[in-house]
Write a structure and sequence with these properties.
alpha+beta; Multidrug efflux transporter AcrB transmembrane fold; Alpha-Beta Plaits; Gyrase A, domain 2; 3 domains; 4-stranded antiparallel sheet; 15 strands; elongated
Length: 443
């Protein structure tokens, strides 16, 4: 038992060191070189205004089309609900997209508004003059000619690497698309099949158009090669997020200043550090050795949670910081429940080892139930945030609170327990007053 506990302690120590390397320095971190992402209210950002071309839609459906555009852009930018964009309609045909930070390229701005519709084309001599040009590849369904494009893709495209380290974008057709693809690739074996995005051919890493030669009949599943990993991943995300029902064009952009001031981040960090130190001092003064152990667990909790925020990444806003601080309080609550149970067991005459095990066992049901109810509330908040146009801060609060509570439950049950077990059998174990609250100790 003791050997297993020592091994668990070493694992916890390794996890803490890795988390610390992810966090520090705060700007980047030794591992992964990624800084903490801040929201519009903390660092400002960029506001883009897109104009939708509604000339081709049915009269009376404009509002429905714009709602669809907002939904697709939200899915493209914020698939996890943690990047805190602000996306809203303006007037009859405009969409305002506000993004944290200023590091967005012209290509990325244009990509947000792309229809993300890939079209397959073949080479044909349409004028019978010996010159071939790219034309839409079509098949026939129920006597009607239809173009083969990505509207027939299922929303499950993904990126992988083959045995020769080539990047592959894997896609799957629905039933109608599979039939069109079967017809077209059957007649084009040995010929090129070009892939276009709008009127422009897709380009590979070498800058040349992607137009693979058809080697065999393709029906339900295919792949696109020649893309860089970043290009393939971005395109896959766009295809899975859905395609825009109408074209968009960037007509205006401006820099947005942080609403809370540039010094708010530093003040928040200072306030959070002071609050954490005061909580640790109270725990040590009142609960003695268990309080010191809980303080170490809180440091572990903070390191793991901040590392997760950087790795996911979670964009921190005022709401997100609130969720993080709230989860710190809940982590302390769990330790208080455990230590009070341990106190009762010690006063009943149990040894330190049995008191620790019994205390954790008795406190577990209360900790479990309270955290499950919090997880349910987080899920509801996330759902509510996803249902309204300005719900990104609500989603961010829900995500940070969920992550914080999950990590705090782990630190309270596993980390605190593991460290306390190290005292079993030591000379300090006989001094029970060191393991009881200040007002309830027994010498």
């Amino acid at each position: 038992m003791r050997r297993k506990n020592v091994f668990t302690t070493l694992v916890i120590l390794v996890i803490f060191i890795l988390a610390a390397l992810v966090i520090f320095p705060l700007g980047e971190g030794v591992l992964f070189s990624r800084g903490v992402e801040l929201g519009l209210d903390l660092q400002g950002g960029l506001r883009l205004v897109y104009e939708a071309d509604l000339s081709g839609v049915a009269e009376g459906s404009e509002e429905e089309i714009l709602n669809g555009v907002v939904a697709v852009i939200t899915n493209r930018i914020n698939p996890l609900g943690v990047s805190e964009p602000q996306i809203e309609k303006q007037g009859d045909n405009r969409i305002i997209v506000s993004l944290p930070g200023l590091e967005i390229t012209d290509v990325e701005k244009e990509r947000i508004g792309r229809t993300a519709l890939l079209e397959f084309r073949e080479l044909k001599d349409t004028d019978n003059d010996g010159t071939r040009e790219w034309v839409t590849a079509t098949g026939e369904i129920d006597g009607e000619a239809k173009a083969l494009n990505s509207s027939y893709f299922k929303d499950n495209t993904f990126v992988t690497v083959d045995d020769f380290n080539n990047i592959l974008l894997i896609f799957e057709f629905n039933a109608e698309g599979a039939e069109l693809s079967r017809q077209i690739t059957t007649r084009l074996i040995g010929e090129q099949l070009g892939i276009f995005e709008g009127d422009e051919p897709m380009l590979g890493e070498d800058g040349r158009p992607i137009a693979p030669t058809v080697q065999s009949v393709i029906s339900d599943r295919g792949q696109i090669t020649g893309l860089s990993l970043n290009e393939a991943t971005t395109l896959s995300q766009q295809l899975n997020a859905g395609r825009l029902p109408v074209p968009l064009e960037v007509i205006y952009e401006q820099t947005v200043s942080p609403t809370l001031g540039s010094d708010f981040v530093g003040l928040s960090l200072k306030a959070g550090t002071i609050g954490l130190l005061l909580v640790m001092l109270f725990m040590i003064a009142y609960y003695r050795i268990p309080g010191a152990v809980a303080s170490l667990a809180l440091i572990f909790y903070a390191a793991i949670t901040l590392a997760l925020f950087k790795l996911i990444p979670v964009t921190l806003t005022l709401a997100g910081i609130g969720g993080f601080i709230l989860s710190i309080g809940m982590a302390v609550d769990a330790n208080v429940l455990i230590f009070e149970r341990i106190k009762e067991e010690l006063q009943a005459g149990r040894t330190l080892g049995s008191a620790i095990e019994a205390g954790f066992s008795r406190a577990w049901s209360a900790i479990r139930d309270s955290n499950i109810t919090t997880f349910i509330v987080c899920a509801i908040l996330f759902w509510v945030g996803s249902s309204v146009a300005a719900g990104a801060p609500v989603q961010g609060f829900a995500v940070t609170l969920f992550l914080g509570v999950a990590v705090s439950m782990f630190t309270a049950i596993v980390v605190t327990r593991t460290i306390l077990r190290l005292f079993i059998g030591s000379r300090l174990a006989g001094k029970k007053w060191l393991f009881s609250p200040f007002l309830g100790g027994n010498k």
